[in-house]
């Protein structure tokens, strides 16, 4: 979400940005893309949307300066070079994402695309890649089923040698699959857009031998491992019903406040409308990239949905309501002291 906020500042801020703030924002954007590559794809989709709005002269995006846009575009090769150099320093090889094709294959298996494609191709060529697995894909976890998944039959994470990338390329470049891919991408992005909550059971680190949490505790806190095994987190009983309820009410009230703002005050605050459009483009871009490339997971949208109440606070500050409330509270406190 910090990458989205700094992207908004970089593109939409009308005042001059100091060199120090520009450098800090650029570093955060580049590092954010390095830490999670989906951020880069989200920003690319967001940039394309902003360019279309600028071309159509809608929502004030025609005022976005071209030098800001060009600077923003320059951050993407910077991210690519930085990620590659970081990997080179650790692995001795220059690459941005080594297993992106495996995650994409996992997505295609999860949503049924892989099986649909294999049924078509294997009917024409029984020797096509993965034909022997087409009927069992629906009943296994492609990424983590170490015994049955074809991922571990074809070399696993480190030695698949682009095998699954070839299958994914065939899926994407087959015209017969395009209507299916578009339908699935739009449906999954809409579902991801509306899927946000804290899931204690799903997000709790698994405590088996493959779990990063387990191996970390065993390695660095061996004397406390038994205590860790009795925690709610370990036993998948760490739940967040109350937090989810508060979050839903906050988002509901924020959405209502935004609707009132659109119908009542949009003419008085045109720049807030520009920011609101940017915000919704960011939220949908996040949902589209995560839903159409990865699997639908509540944490993907939960990480950015808090931008809605943040926007309400910005509007309240811009309109002077917050300062008026603060003045009244100070006056009330002063009267009590008297």
Describe the structure.
- The chain is 69% helix and 0% strand.
- With 338 residues, it is mostly helical.
- Helix 15 runs antiparallel to helix 16 and helix 15 runs antiparallel to helix 17 (307-319).
- The longest helix has 26 residues, at 66-91.
Q: Descriptors for this entry?
A:
mainly alpha; 338 residues; 69% helix
Total E-strand runs: 0
Individual helix count: 18
| Fraction of helical residues | 55-70%
Cα-to-Cα separation, first versus last residue: 45 Å
Mean pLDDT: 85
β-strand amount: under 5%
Helix/strand structural class: mainly alpha
Q: Sum up the overall morphology in one term.
A: globular
- Main β-sheet description: none
Q: What is the subunit organization of this protein? A: single chain
Radius of gyration: 24 Å
Quick recap:
With 338 residues, the protein is an all-alpha fold. It is 69% helix and 0% strand.
List the helices and strands and how they pair.
Blueprint: H1 2-12, H2 19-35, H3 38-56, H4 66-91, H5 100-110, H6 113-124, H7 150-153, H8 156-159, H9 163-172, H10 178-193, H11 200-203, H12 212-220, H13 225-228, H14 241-265, H15 270-293, H16 298-305, H17 307-319, H18 321-337
Helix pairs in contact: 1-2, 2-4, 3-15, 5-9, 10-15, 14-17, 15-16, 15-17
């Amino acid at each position: 979400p910090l990458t989205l906020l700094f992207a908004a500042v970089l593109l939409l801020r009308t005042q001059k940005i100091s060199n120090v703030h520009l450098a800090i924002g650029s570093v955060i954007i580049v590092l954010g893309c390095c830490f999670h590559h989906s951020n880069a794809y989200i920003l690319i989709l967001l940039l394309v949307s902003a360019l279309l709005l600028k071309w159509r002269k809608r929502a004030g995006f025609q005022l976005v300066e071209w030098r800001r846009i060009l600077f923003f575009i320059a951050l993407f090769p910077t991210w690519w070079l930085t990620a590659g150099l970081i990997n080179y320093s650790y692995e001795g090889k220059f690459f941005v994402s080594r297993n992106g094709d495996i995650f994409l294959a996992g997505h295609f298996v999860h949503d049924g695309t892989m099986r649909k494609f294999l049924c078509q191709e294997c009917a024409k060529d029984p020797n096509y890649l993965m034909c022997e697995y087409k009927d069992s894909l629906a009943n296994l976890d492609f990424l983590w089923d170490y015994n049955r998944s074809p991922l571990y039959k074809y070399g696993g994470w480190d030695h698949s040698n682009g095998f699954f990338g070839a299958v994914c390329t065939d899926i994407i470049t087959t015209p017969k699959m395009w209507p299916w891919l578009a339908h699935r991408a739009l449906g999954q992005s809409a579902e991801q857009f509306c899927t946000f909550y804290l899931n204690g059971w799903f997000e709790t680190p698994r405590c088996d031998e493959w779990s990063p949490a387990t191996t970390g505790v065993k390695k660095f806190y061996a004397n406390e491992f038994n205590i860790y095994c009795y925690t709610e987190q370990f036993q998948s009983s760490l739940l967040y019903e109350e937090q989810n309820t508060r979050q839903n009410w906050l988002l509901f009230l924020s959405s209502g406040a935004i609707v009132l703002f659109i119908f009542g005050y949009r003419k008085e605050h045109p720049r807030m409308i520009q920011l609101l459009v940017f915000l919704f483009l960011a939220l949908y871009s996040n949902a589209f990239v995560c839903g159409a490339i990865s699997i639908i997971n509540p944490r993907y949208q939960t990480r950015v949905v808090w931008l809605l109440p943040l926007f309400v606070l910005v509007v309240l500050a811009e309109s002077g309501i917050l300062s008026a409330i603060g003045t009244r509270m100070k006056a009330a406190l002063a009267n009590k002291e008297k």
